[in-house]
Design brief:
Blueprint: H1 25-33, H2 36-58, H3 63-79, H4 81-94, E1 98-102, H5 105-119, E2 123-126, H6 130-134, H7 137-143, E3 147-150, H8 153-160, H9 177-187, H10 199-216, E4 219-222, E5 226-228, E6 233-238, H11 242-248, E7 252-258, E8 262-263, H12 266-280, E9 288-293, E10 303-309, H13 313-317, H14 333-337, H15 339-344, H16 355-366, H17 383-387, H18 394-412, H19 416-428, H20 431-441, E11 452-453, E12 469-470, H21 477-487
Parallel strand pairs: 1-10, 2-3, 2-4, 4-7, 5-8, 7-10
Antiparallel strand pairs: 5-6, 6-9, 11-12
The structure holds iron/sulfur cluster.
């Protein structure tokens, strides 16, 4: 039974976009900055990906035109999202698939749990999917007695390490090879005793471990990079071939997709297939592109379910200044060029969407109040905007979200800053009040030494924690002016 989501409709309580119990960004970032191993791992990995991306992007003389085309296609799709989603549902259904609509994480998880239960399976193999992290699907399946097995190498490392992904594309970017070998030896169960930390040995251990899961799985679970409305075709791009296994071997395939991933036509997909691999892995094309349309008798999964997820997206769409965040194709180019991300890593963002786009997307999906520190987790240098293949103006979105945060805060309880500004406005409105204020300010001279005030009393103490304040002069400018005029 499907439940359509109507655009603009307020969403039910949202899912787990912000990780429960996660510290706010400033606290988590300070902790991450103290971890020199983490900074080394991140610095090396992001520098490598940046160089690869720059090389393949530099090969295309029409890169800027491709970016403009991608941006225009996304803007058009968002403007008519309701039509394209209904067309997608019609086409998937006509080709033997079943479409489900989920307003939030709770609804999406319930749908997937019920679908897996209906097959009698207690295990499912998964293709790497951030949207299933967003809704906490693995945890929901585990609570229902169903084991979700991550099959992407990096996701497997994260899962075996009881860890959290820290990068959109390279979830285990914070781990080095020695750490991965230790995790495999400790957690995998069937890792060879003499396992070394060479990439070939680690990959072979994972390959053999996963092969058994692929061959016995009845249910596969995936996200989707794109869905083409005109034919109902779903598309997953990946590098390892594990996705192809999950998408073709099980009897039942369940795909969870954010509603913003739909594209109108195959012609549009052509643009994104040039933009995405170059921006994400720094490749001209990705090694595996899997596409499927409904169900094909005798070939591949015989049951196909598509779960279309809102979870805050229609609320983001209703914000004309912020909706371009939904254009994101999750390439992660903005993470790799961000000086903040490179130093603190993904965990500091406390969200499944880290980095510059996470600092925008997470507050938009969960409400600014739930991720209030993230719009400030940026130097606004603009490197993310330059790198983004669909030209999302992330710095402007961050400023927009900061303004929303300030406005929402002011509506609840005036902040110290707002109180100070209101007081300043009252004082500056009349010369007499300013004179009285200046006289009162001279009392500050009592707190100073050597012309500086090193510690102000509360509530002004915050100002002097990182800076000195000059001692107010004995004579104000007005007094000086008056005495000068009198002397004439
Ligand atoms: S915001 Fe742009 S650069 Fe960042 S992940 Fe999304 S598409 Fe890629």
């Amino acid at each position: 039974m499907s439940t359509p989501v109507y655009l603009g409709m307020p969403t039910a309580p949202r899912g787990v976009g912000h990780l429960r119990g996660a510290d706010p960004f400033p606290v988590a970032a300070r902790r991450a900055l103290a971890d020199s191993q983490l900074r080394r791992n991140l610095g090396r990995a992001t520098a490598t990906i940046r160089a690869k991306r720059a090389a393949v992007v530099g090969e295309l003389p029409d890169w800027e035109e491709l970016r403009a085309a991608g941006s225009a296609t996304k803007a058009n799709t968002m403007a008519h999202l309701d039509q394209y989603l209904e067309q997608l549902e019609e086409q998937v259904t006509a080709r033997g698939g079943v479409v489900h609509w989920a307003r939030d994480a709770v609804e999406a998880n319930r749908i997937v749990v019920d679908l897996v239960r209906a097959t009698g399976a207690t295990e499912a193999v998964k293709v790497k999917s951030i949207v299933t992290d967003e809704i906490g699907l693995n945890e929901a399946l585990a609570a229902a007695g169903i084991r979700a097995r991550e099959t992407d190498l990096a996701e497997l490392i994260v899962q075996l390490g009881h860890d959290r992904p820290s990068h959109i594309l390279v979830p285990a970017i914070h781990r080095n090879r020695a750490e991965i070998r230790d995790i495999f030896l400790r957690e995998m169960g069937d890792a060879p005793a003499g396992l070394t930390d060479s990439p070939a040995a680690l990959t072979e251990a994972a390959r053999l471990h996963l092969r058994r899961a692929f061959l016995s799985a009845k249910v596969g679970i995936s996200g989707a990079n794109f869905a083409i409305a005109e034919t109902g075709t779903l598309c997953v791009v990946e590098s390892e071939g594990n996705g192809r296994m999950c998408l073709t071997l099980p009897d039942t395939l369940i795909t969870v997709m954010g509603i913003e991933k739909v594209l109108p036509s195959w012609a549009d997909l052509g643009v994104f297939m040039q933009l995405l691999p170059r921006s994400s892995t720094g490749e001209r094309m990705n090694p595996y592109t899997s596409m499927w349309t409904g169900v094909t008798p005798g070939d591949g999964p015989q049951q196909f379910h598509l779960v279309l997820l809102d979870n805050g997206r229609t609320a983001a769409l209703a914000d004309p200044a912020g909706r371009s965040a939904l254009h994101c194709i999750r390439c992660s180019a903005c993470l790799n060029v961000c000086p903040v991300y490179e130093r603190v890593g993904g965990h500091a963002y406390g969200s499944v969407y880290p980095g510059p786009i996470g600092a925008v997307l997470s507050p938009m999906l969960t409400g600014v109040g739930d991720n209030a520190s993230l719009p400030y987790a940026s130097s606004l240098c603009g490197a993310c905007y330059e790198a983004c293949p669909v030209k999302i103006d992330i710095p402007s979105l961050l400023v927009h979200l900061r303004a929303r945060h300030v406005e929402e805060d002011a509506a609840r309880l005036p902040s110290p800053e707002a109180v100070t500004m209101a007081a300043a406005s009252w004082v500056l409105a009349k010369p007499g009040r300013l004179r009285a204020g200046q006289r009162a300010g001279r009392l500050g001279r009592l707190l100073g030494r050597d012309g500086r005030i090193r510690r102000l009393p509360p509530p002004l103490a915050g100002w002097t924690t990182a800076r000195d304040a000059p001692v107010p002069p004995a004579q104000t400018f007005r007094d000086w002016w008056r005495s000068r005029e009198g002397a004439r």
